[in-house]
Design a protein that fits this description.
The complex is a heterodimer of chains A (312) and B (344).
Chain A (H helix, E strand, L loop, with lengths): L1 H41 L1 H7 L2 H4 L3 E2 L4 E2 L2 H32 L2 H15 L3 H28 L14 H25 L3 H9 L4 H30 L2 H6 L17 H8 L6 H32 L7
Antiparallel strand pairs in A: 1-2
Helix pairs in contact in A: 1-12, 2-12, 4-7, 4-9, 4-11, 5-7, 6-7, 7-9, 8-9, 9-12, 11-12
Chain B lengths: L1 H16 L5 E6 L4 H15 L2 E5 L3 H9 L5 E4 L5 H7 L1 E16 L9 E2 L1 H8 L9 H6 L11 E5 L4 H13 L1 H6 L12 E3 L1 H11 L3 E6 H6 L3 E2 L1 E3 L5 E2 L3 H10 L24 E9 L5 H16 L2 H6 L3 E2 L2 H14 L1 E2 L2 E2 L4
Parallel strand pairs in B: 1-2, 1-3, 5-10, 6-7, 6-8
Antiparallel strand pairs in B: 3-12, 4-8, 4-9, 4-12, 4-13, 10-11, 14-15
The chains are: A mainly alpha (312), B alpha/beta (344).
Chain lengths: 312, 344
């Protein structure tokens, strides 16, 4: 009898637990829909006034109330791409070193140091970028780039130390810890027996990493990169400090630009006119949609990449 | 536990219900924030009346006073008489400040380079692009200017400082008027944007050959290299408390509807051309009489006893004749339940 009652109590507990879990899971979805709905509602005045032209126009005139999102979208995407291009090889290198090559005693300290980098608030990166990194870039790196690579249009411009390229650099430093620590975790999940069989047939370390470890972890690595990309797309303060905040699309990566989040951080406080405010909210909505598309795209990619055994 | 809860609730209620005359809430412009917080501190020490000022920006201040969430708003740009009447508001100037062009040119120290309105406008329009341009050399005989590119630095955030600066360019240059106009943020024809006075200052210090504009007290405290500017009477003047006062004194406060005076490009031999007053905005018909009286009491004290503190913080207090005009206007214009709130 006692056993039976116990069983019943367990059932109730289970039901409650399930209910609570359901609630929180659904809550996340509801919250997201809610955010989307509010952003959409608040950007209606701007959507009505500018329509689709908002996406293709490069105007940004708070006096005449003419707004277009193109420079901000361009800046957001290009600075994030620069960040990914720089951060991915470095992060993979770090992760491979830590899992495959580093002496045991070194793995802990270096791993912790990288994770610490991830916990530095972004405004610190912004200030460091502006006061330390930008001067260094404008005195040493950018003059060299202009002299030696200036014949390529994207590497022309003035060595200000502030602009699209510096923003990409800072972003890459910020996302390296994310990508590298996630990829390290993933590399550690490769079953030792697979690597050992690789070495067993006489493969070198390079061959094992390239032909066993990376193919096995491909979908996870994709996830790590997307995590970094997500962070780069939405990063605000650090970018605001170094991107130069200019609503223009310039061929040269050395020139100042702007991003969606930097525009929001800069202009929200003084946007009094309803159309101005609504245009800023619509920028937020666009960022929301871009992030969503990136996520969906990555899910599809991960699906396509997942390891099916044997040769990829 | 329950007792504790009740006690907490009671305390919250008491805090909320404490007499509204003991606490004044204000919000708005960031430019006068150091001054208002200094005044608030001294005033609370003397009278026990606390002032809570949130420096959220002029736009936010105007919005909040319209929505009646604060007792006063503060703005660096005056509202027009029409806007004031429509919203049932009243404004008066509290202090004068100036906006200063600051430069970073090799071998040039503070006040050494002279600029005319035309050249300044051409630089910010992106038309004069090198420091050894003939237009600049012509007005700076005897000064060696390098062959460096001019980089314009402006504010990236909306700000009253930008409003004053752009308003000046708008007045002196037709082309600026057509291409950019003025506002707390404008469509900049050239340059990079820094966030806040500190952002502009950092960029100007960083970038060789740059020119930016910051609020005077900020330029002074950070030892930035300012340029001399030619005023309406063709004199080259340095920015100083005296040259801002000169601009303020020449304005016709009494006959300007809504006291909507903009101090840019004012006449006067010594006037600094990019000056501006910062304004307080209150409701014409406040509902809480005691609180409205406390607000005006504070600003009355600030006009008289606060003037010295303003100077020590590099702000220009309102001249006595101006503050008298304002206090007379308080009596006439601000009514609570049909009664004048302020009597001198």
């Amino acid at each position: 009898m006692a056993f039976f009652e116990r069983h019943k109590a367990d059932k109730i507990g289970d039901a409650v637990f399930r209910g609570v879990s359901y609630f929180f899971a659904v809550l996340v979805v509801v919250l997201m829909l809610f955010i989307f709905a509010v952003l959409f509602k608040e950007s209606l005045p701007s959507i009505r006034k500018f329509g689709l032209k908002f996406l293709t126009s490069a105007a940004w005139d708070p006096v005449q109330l003419e707004f277009g999102a193109l420079p901000a979208i361009y800046g957001t995407i290009v600075s994030s791409i620069i960040a990914i291009v720089i951060a991915v090889p470095i992060s993979l290198g770090i992760a491979i070193f830590l899992t495959e090559m580093a002496p045991k005693g070194l793995r802990g300290p270096i791993g912790t140091a990288i994770e610490l980098l991830a916990s530095i608030p972004s405004i610190i990166y912004g200030m460091w970028g502006l006061f330390v990194f930008a001067p260094f870039l404008s005195d040493h790196i950018e003059p060299w780039i202009i002299d030696h690579l200036g014949f390529i249009p994207i590497f022309n411009g003035a060595p200000l130390g502030i602009g699209m390229l510096p923003a990409g650099f800072i972003l890459s430093i910020m996302i390296i810890p994310f990508i590298s620590s996630v990829s390290r975790e993933i590399f550690q999940m490769v079953p030792p027996i697979m690597k050992e069989s690789g070495y067993g047939v006489g493969a070198t370390k390079w061959e094992v990493i390239r032909k066993v470890v990376i193919p096995y972890t491909r979908s996870g690595l994709m996830g790590a990169v997307i995590l970094g990309l997500g962070r780069a797309l939405g990063e605000t303060m650090a970018v605001t400090f170094v991107i130069g905040n200019s609503h223009e699309i310039s061929k040269a990566l050395l020139d100042p630009a702007t991003s969606i989040s930097a525009t929001l951080a800069n202009e929200f406080t003084e946007a009094v006119d309803p159309v101005y405010l609504s245009s800023l909210v619509e920028l937020g909505l666009i960022l929301f949609v871009i992030t969503f598309i990136v996520l969906v795209f990555s899910k599809l990619l991960i699906g396509g990449f997942s390891y099916k055994g044997g040769r990829p | 536990m329950r007792k504790l809860l009740i006690a907490v609730v009671l305390m919250l209620l008491m805090a909320g219900g404490s007499s509204a005359a003991d606490l004044i809430n204000g919000a708005g412009a960031t430019f006068p924030y150091p001054l208002y917080s200094k005044w608030a501190y001294e005033y609370a020490k003397k009278t026990g009346i606390k002032l809570n000022y949130q420096s959220i920006g002029s736009g936010g201040g105007i919005k909040q006073i319209k929505e009646k969430t604060v007792d006063f708003g503060a703005s660096d740009a005056p509202l027009t008489a029409k806007e004031l009447t429509e919203a049932g508001l009243f404004q008066f100037p509290m202090a004068i400040g100036g906006v200063v062009p600051v430069v970073n040119i090799k071998g040039i120290s503070a006040g050494q380079i002279r600029l005319t309105p035309d050249v300044l406008a051409d630089m910010f329009l992106g038309k004069v692009t090198r420091w050894n341009d003939k237009k600049i050399i012509d007005i700076n005989p005897g000064v060696t200017l390098p062959d460096d590119k001019i980089t314009v630095v402006h504010r990236s955030d909306g700000s009253g400082t930008t409003w004053i600066f752009a308003n000046y360019l708008d007045k002196i240059s037709k082309e600026w008027h057509d291409r950019a106009g003025f506002g707390t943020a404008v469509n900049w024809p050239a340059g990079v944007g820094g966030k806040g006075n500190e952002g502009v200052a950092a960029y100007v210090k960083r970038i060789k050959g740059s020119i930016g504009y910051v609020e005077y007290a900020y330029a002074l405290q950070n030892k930035l290299t300012h340029a001399k500017l030619q005023n309406r009477e063709k004199n080259f003047v340095d920015p100083s408390i005296e040259s801002f006062s000169a601009a303020g004194a020449s304005a016709d406060w009494k006959n300007t509807p809504g006291f909507s005076v903009v101090l840019t490009d004012q006449p006067g031999k010594n006037s600094w051309p990019i000056s501006g007053a910062t304004f307080i905005i209150v409701r014409r018909q406040p509902e809480d009489c005691a609180n409205a009286k406390a607000v005006l009491g504070f600003f009355d004290w600030a006009y008289s006893d606060g003037a010295g503190m303003a100077r020590s913080l590099d702000y220009v207090p309102m001249p006595k004749n101006v503050s008298e005009i304002m206090e007379d206007a308080w009596t006439k214009e601000i009514k609570c339940k049909g009664q004048a709130v302020w009597k001198r």
